[in-house]
Design a protein that fits this description.
The protein has a four-stranded antiparallel beta sheet, with no helix packed on it. The termini are far apart. About 15% of the residues are buried. It has a domain of about 80 residues: mini-chromosome maintenance (MCM) complex, domain 2. It contains two helices and seven strands, in the order H-E-E-E-E-E-H-E-E. By secondary structure, it is an alpha+beta fold.
Length: about 120
């Protein structure tokens, strides 16, 4: 290995460290989650309460959502591969659950309601 190899490895490590720092710093505390069916808000959930189950109607049938203590997951749903319920709990502000077979989307609401990203 020559000098340029060590410089390249150092630059790659700095980039990886920067990405890790940015992703861990963007984890904001969330208090509420929104559940959308076919792009329409159907449920707003307070995550500061104890764990509770909610049932919303999805495209393929009822979708059971378990939420509380700052986290949320799809407990049970009717879809071919059950990928939504296999995802498990999410608790970070940048995570979401997108259940395409049932047209259900679950996202977290930011506390400060600031714009994080704009996509054109």
């Amino acid at each position: 290995m020559n000098k340029n190899d060590f410089i390249l490895i150092g630059v790659i490590l700095l980039i990886i460290g920067g990405i890790f720092f940015i992703t861990t710093r963007s984890n904001k505390k969330v208090n509420t989650a929104s559940v959308y069916y076919d792009n329409n808000l159907v449920l707003k959930i307070d995550l500061t309460l104890d764990e509770k189950e909610y049932i919303v109607d999805g495209y393929n049938g009822p979708v059971t959502i378990k939420a509380g203590n700052g986290k949320i997951k799809v407990e049970d749903e009717d879809s071919p591969l059950h990928l939504c319920s296999k995802q498990g709990y999410i608790d970070k502000s940048y995570e979401s659950i997108i259940c395409l077979p049932n047209k259900i989307v679950i996202t977290f609401d930011d506390i400060d309601n600031s714009i994080d990203t704009v996509v054109k």
